[in-house]
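Aim 2 progress update. The chain analyzed this quarter is reproduced below.
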Amino acid sequence: MADRCQAAFGKILSGACYASDIFIESAEKIWAVGGNGVILCGNAEHGFQDVSFKGNNEKLHSITNFKDRMVIASDYALHWFDGHLLSPLKPILDPSINRNIPNPLKVQAVDNVLYYFDSKHGVHTYDGDRWTEIEIPPELLERDFKGLPSSLDD
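Predicted structure tokens:
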């Protein structure tokens, strides 16, 4: 299994080999990201090419297309991906948020809005110019969430 995984990801990887996210841009262009900085692009018919760049060993968690550009979430930040290199997505979140290192989980674009999910900093949207925090009701953050109060059902 490890040999097939390494061959599919195009790198000699130490430790576990995994894909953490897949983004289907079209039937002909499918993207995948994963551990050890792996970025793949291709399709089922012609296979996948490793478009990762040498020296990138970060854990890549998520990938999406936002306003005709690829956005990738790594362990510690959001990045633009130009097909060759990662560069910081700017503007960054509010500097007061970034005092503590973020922990990106997922990025997803819907229409012209980028949604960013972070285990430390919650949920934010980005419209291409500025970030907006989406406030999460405290009830939803409880470990043993049993539903919203019935008064909200009306």
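Residues 1-5, 9-13 have pLDDT under 50 and may be disordered. The longest strand covers residues 60-66. These observations will guide the mutagenesis experiments scheduled for the next reporting period.
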